[in-house]
Amino acid sequence: MQLRYAFRVYPEPRQRLALAQAFGCARVVYNDAVRAREDARAAGLPFPKAGELSKRLITEAKRTVERSWLGEVSAVVLQQSLRDVESAYRNFFASLKGERKGTRVGTPRFKSRKDSRQSIRFTANAHWSITASGRLNLPKIGAVKVKWSRTLPATPTSVTMIKDAAGRYFASFVIDTDPAADAHRMPDTAQTVGIDLGLTHFAVLSDGTKIDSPRFLRRAEKKLKKAQRDLSRKQKGSKNREKAPLKVARAHAKVADARREFHHQLSTQLIRDNQAIGVETLAVKGLTRTRLAKSVHDAGWAQFVHMLEYKATRYGRTLIKIGRFEPTSQTCSTCGVKDGPKPLHVREWTCTACGAVHDRDHNAAINVKTAAGLAVAACRAPVGPGLVLAQREETGSHGIPTRPRAA
To answer: Which run of H or of E encompasses 196?
Structure first.
């Protein structure tokens, strides 16, 4: 399977200029390709093929005065930008026909230099390399300093250079891993566990373990409000006004990074200690429309479950998703009698049939584990998710706008 390993990079000033130029050229080619397709659609003509776009927007454009500066960056970066357009339209039409799972994908939109995220991709054809001193050597950019936090398990097939909203640079490598070798690294275990996700505690396990919710956004809310207030008070057009959004973005990035690290550590621990894991699917979109929206975004359940999915696939574990309509909080885990719905403020309850006293979340986690075990027995085979290609998104289409998510 394919995984993505991201590392922080620290380009020098001249390298930042070269990266900015590459970001801009890739953005122009992407926008030219979208414009060419939109013009063809308006004229009732078939979409131009990838080869035709490559010849017109890259090869021939370099010979013109208006686009001569395209020759100052790697041609691979420009070709990959065209591939991103192809992928964006492919995803749009698949979503339109109902062939693509997940959130509906909108039509590709023009990119802006003011976008919070800029990226370019180098494949093996670009002849990029990692030097003996540990630097990342990129064509027409140079040897960039990399902060290696871990060792790459295999030779990367491509690298994506990313600049995020906080002004940080990352090198994201795509690695082909061997699932058999990865599964061999995990200790043998026959343990199974059910997980009940919540807000009072981030997760309650079927063995009684309660994992507190760090509430990263709530803890940093005071600093975030101050940064946003300072931004609103800066005079428009001033130098300080240009710096203030970067401070806001860095504050939000710090919160998001802390949450992601917490999810990684917890998901890895659960995958390592258990052969099978049961987790309940939650209506996150519905919950984000309630008064609990900020707390739901702060918890980041979807990101955590996604990590469990791809790690279970990678290490040969089994992940069972229980339907959201399973009455895990209403059923007695001792006698199996359904005791009816209960309001959220009821954290403990007594079964009217057998008299057992239950902690609401612990009882739900036990029922999740039981339901997951029944699911495995019913199919008589391990149930796991599909392959997960990458952690960080490549450049491509923009989705249909939804409610903004908190950091």
So the answer is: strand 192-197
- The CA-to-CA distance between both ends of the chain, in Å, stands at 29
pTM of the model: 0.84
Residue type, 353: A
Q: Rounded distance, CA 303 to CA 299, Å?
A: 9
Judge whether residue 402 has pLDDT over 70: no
Q: How far apart are the C-alpha atoms of 178 and 313, rounded to whole Å?
A: 11
Q: Give me the mean pLDDT over the 316-324 stretch.
A: 90
The residue behind tokens 């990458």 is 390
Q: How far is CA 303 from CA 47, 367, 384, in A?
A: 36, 23, 17
Instruction: Supply 39's token pair.
Output: 């013009």
Name the strand (E) or helix (H) holding 143. Answer: strand 142-147
What is the set of active-site residues?
Answer: 196, 280, 361
Quickly count: other Cβ atoms within 10 Å of residue 195's Cβ.
28
Q: Which two tokens stand for residue 392?
A: 């960080």
Q: Span 179-197, mean pLDDT?
A: 88
Q: Which of 173, 170, 245 is nearest to 19 (CA)?
A: 170
Neighbour tally for 312: CB within 10 Å: 25
Length of the chain counted residue by residue:
407
> Do 361 and 204 touch, CB atoms closer than 8 A?
yes
Give me the residues paired with residue 138 across strands. Answer: 142
